[in-house]
Amino acid sequence: MSQLTIAIVGAGIAGLTAARALQGLGFRPVVYEEAPVLGEVGAGLTVSPNATHVLNAIGLEGTLERIGMRPDRGGVKHWKTGEMLVEVSRGNELREKYGAAYYQVHRADLHRELADLVVMTDEQAIRMKHTFKRLR
After folding, report:
1. What fold, for 7-127?
2. Hey, where are the domains in the chain?
3. pLDDT category, 2, cuts 50, 70, 90?
4. What pLDDT was estimated at residue 102?
């Protein structure tokens, strides 16, 4: 089964995560990206405990702790008054309940870590300057 040709369109967070997961299962996916180089795009991301489990499973265990932060609390405020409408625990309670932490990370930092891991496994896995046109 690992001889299948698997093409992934787009070297964003999802594409790189899929590529790394497939690599971990013994496949050699190829990620096609339209941009000429991978670069810093986007801003902050929240990484839920479910996503933390996935990122840990594909080889990034410890990375979120190094590049991100674990806020104790979060919430939703009214756009105009600033009144706290909903407050949510984000600290150790989530880790205890779900077995993984909630993080906030800069997108570019997570993207770089994923790209490095994919390329470290297969230096030909990401191909830049490719545009998806159509399915055959």
Report:
1. FAD/NAD(P)-binding domain (3.50.50)
2. 7-127
3. low
4. 95
